[in-house]
Amino acid sequence: MHGGRARGKEGRQAKKLPERLGGAAGRASIPRTRDPHIPCPDEDQDQDEDKVLASPAGGASKMLWNHLSIFVVVTGIALGLRTSEEPVSKSKICANVFCGAGRECAVTEKSEPTCLCIEKCKTHKRPVCGSNGKTYLNHCELHRDACLTGSKIQVDYDGHCKEKKPENSAASPVVCYQTDRDELRRRVIQWLEAEIIPDGWFSKGSNYTEILEKYFKNFDDGDSRLDSNEFLKFVEQNESAVNITTYVNQETNKLLRGLCVDALIELSDENADWKLSFNEFLKCLNPAFNPPEKKCALEDESYEDGAETQVNCNRCVCACGNWVCTAMTCEGKNQQVPFQEQPEDKLTEEELARYVQELQKHQETSEKIKQMTTKDM
C-alpha cells in the first residue's frame, strides 16, 4: 500500500512537471506581444503543444523542422553567392587573355575565353585617317572595322583623310570593265525587247530575232558583217543604251562607249576578225546568253577584272580579260597618250614593258605627223 501511494505520488509529480514547464512561470520568462490580427491561443492549447513537444515524437518533428529551415537558409545563401560571383568569374577567366586591337575577351558557353570583335566603341572624338582612305571617329572604330571586315587597316595619320589629288586618277587608262560591258548589253537587250509586237488577229507581229535582223540589215554596209563602227551606230540609236556616265568628262564617256562595243564584239566573234555575222550578232544579244568572266594573265598568274600593275611610270589595268596600259613619257611631266591597245594574253613583265615602249613610239610618230600637217596648213 505504501509502495503504491509512493508510486502514485511520483506519477503526480511527473505529471505536474510539464505543466510547470508550460505554465505561468514558463510564459512569464518569455514576454509575448499581442497582435490584433493573430488570435492568442488559450492555455489548454499551450498545454497540449507542451505535451507533444515533451514526447519523443514531438522532439523528432522539431529537429526535422530545424534541419529543413537550416537547409533552406543555406541554399538561399549559396544561390546568392553564385549570382554575385558570375561577373567575377568572367573577369577571372579573361584576366590573362590578351586580345588584339579591335577585339575584346568574351566567355563561351563552356566557360572558356575567346576573342570577338568589339561590340561598341566609346564615342570620344579623335578622328584618324586609315590606310584605306577612310576617316574614323577614333582608333577603336578603325580597329573594330578592320576586325569586322577581316582586312588589315592601319592608322595613316591623325585627323580627317585629305582628298586625293585629281592627277592620280588621270594616271589610269580609260577602260571598259566587265560591269560596264554587261550594263551596256543589258540596256540594248531591254530596248530591243520593248519593240517586240505579238501577233494579232489579222496582223503579224515581230519577234526578237526579226527585230535584230532588221537592225542588222539597216547598219550593214553590204558585206553581211557588222564592224565596230557599224555596231556603235546601231547602239547609238537608243539614248538610254548609250547613256553610260562612268566618268565626269563626256568625251571620256564617249570613248568608253566605243571600248564597250569592242568588248561586246569580242564576246561572240568566233573567227576573231573583229566583225560579227548575223549569227554572231544574234548570239551576242541573246538574252539567255551569259557572258563569261575573263581574267588577265601575267607571269603565270591570273588577275581579276580591275586589277592594276605598274610598268615604269605607266599603269596597266585588267579589263575584260586584256591588259590596257597608258603610254606616258617618263621624262619630265607625264602626259597621258590618247592611244591604247590590248596586248596578247600571258605576257611577261619584259613583254609588257616592250608593249608600253611601242605605245610611246606610236605616240611620237603621231606627234610628228601632227606637226607636219600643221606646217603644211
TrEMBL record:
Recorded source organism is Python bivittatus
Does the record bear Glycoprotein in its keywords?
yes
Task: Extract the InterPro entries matched here.
Answer: EF-hand-dom_pair (IPR011992), EF-hand_FSTL1 (IPR057020), Fol_N (IPR003645), Follistatin/Osteonectin_EGF (IPR015369), Kazal_dom (IPR002350), Kazal_dom_sf (IPR036058), Prot_Inhib_GrowthFact_Antg (IPR050653)
Which branch of life, at top level?
Eukaryota
This entry's Gene Ontology molecular function terms read: heparin binding
Main function: Secreted glycoprotein that is involved in various physiological processes, such as angiogenesis, regulation of the immune response, cell proliferation and differentiation. Plays a role in the development of the central nervous system, skeletal system, lungs, and ureter. Promotes endothelial cell survival, migration and differentiation into network structures in an AKT-dependent manner. Also promotes survival of cardiac myocytes. Initiates various signaling cascades by activating different receptors on the cell surface such as DIP2A, TLR4 or BMP receptors.
Primary subcellular site in the record, as a coarse category: secreted
Annotated Kazal-like domain ranges read 116-163
Spans annotated as Disordered: 1-53
Q: Which CDD domains match?
A: EFh_SPARC_FSTL1, KAZAL_FS
Record SMART domains: FOLN (SM00274), KAZAL (SM00280)
Gene Ontology biological process: cell differentiation; regulation of BMP signaling pathway
Question: GO terms for CC?
Answer: extracellular space
* Gene field: FSTL1
Q: Which UniProt keywords apply?
A: Coiled coil, Disulfide bond, Glycoprotein, Heparin-binding, Phosphoprotein, Repeat, Secreted, Signal
Q: What's the protein name?
A: Follistatin-related protein 1
Q: Does the keyword Manganese apply?
A: no
Xref: Pfam families? EF-hand_FSTL1, FOLN, Kazal_2, VWF
Q: From start to end residue, where is composition biased (Basic and acidic residues)?
A: 7-19
